[in-house]
Known about the structure:
Layout: E1 4-5, E2 16-18, E3 21-22, H1 34-37, E4 45-46, E5 60-63, H2 76-88, E6 99-104, H3 117-120, E7 124-129, H4 137-140, H5 146-158, E8 163-167, H6 175-184, E9 189-192, H7 209-218, E10 223-226, H8 234-246
Amino acid sequence: MKLNKSKGNMYEFVTHTWNPIKGRCYHDCAYCYMKTIVPNPQPIHLDESELNGIFSENQFIFIGSSTDVFASDVPSEWITAILDFCVEATLHQNGIKTRFLLQTKNPARILGFTDHPLFKSGQAVACTTIETNRHYSETMNNAPTPKERAEAMSMIAERGIKTYVTIEPIMDFDLDELVSLVKMCTPEQVNIGANSVRSIKIPEPTKGNILIDLIQHLLCFTQVKVKKNLDGDKLTRMLIRRLKRNYSYEKRD
C-alpha cells in the first residue's frame, strides 16, 4: 500500500491520498490535473499490491484522487475489494479511527454500496464534485450532470451517510440554482477551489461579489472550506474571514 502525504492543492483536512485503482479515468474531464502528470495513462486497472498493510490511526485518506473509484467502467468487485480492505486494515485501531473520503462524479454508484460495513461504521464520507449548476458538456465530457450528482447525493444522505460537496474547479454559475443543488446533498462541509490547471480554459466566474454571495448563502446551512488557490487576493481573504465570523449554520443531528 502506497500512501501519499497530502500536499500542493489537496484539501487541507486530508492527510493522505491513496490510489488502488490506476489508469485512464472514464469521466475524462477537460480540466483534470492528472492529464498534465500522465498524458497517456494505461487502461484502468486495480493494483492488487495496494491491498496490503494497515492504516495508522487518525488519518483522513482520499481514495481515488487520480482515478474515480466509482466511475461506471470500474467493476463492482474492485470497489468491494477496496472497501473490504479499508475495514480489515483498520480493525486493529483503538484510538481515533482512520476516515476515508470517497469523492466521485458518479455518486449514483455509491448507492449500491451504502450497506457496506465501511459506510455503516461512519468512517467513510461520500463526496461529489458540483463545479456549477450548469452542464458544460465540452468540459465535463463523460461525467453525469450536476443535477444528476445532486439527486444521487440526496439519496445517499437520506441513508444516514455523511456527505461533502466540492465546488472545484468553480465554474460560472447561477447563484440560486447552484445553492439549491448543493443543499440537496445535505452536506456537512462544502469545499471551494479554483482551476488548478491554468493551461486549460474553463468558464470561470468573476471573483468578488458573486463568490462572496455564494459563500454567504452556503454558510447559512453548512461549513465552508475555501482553498488557498481561490482566496489568494487580500480583499477576498478579508471578506471570507468576515463572513465566517458573522454567519453560522444550524448543525444537524
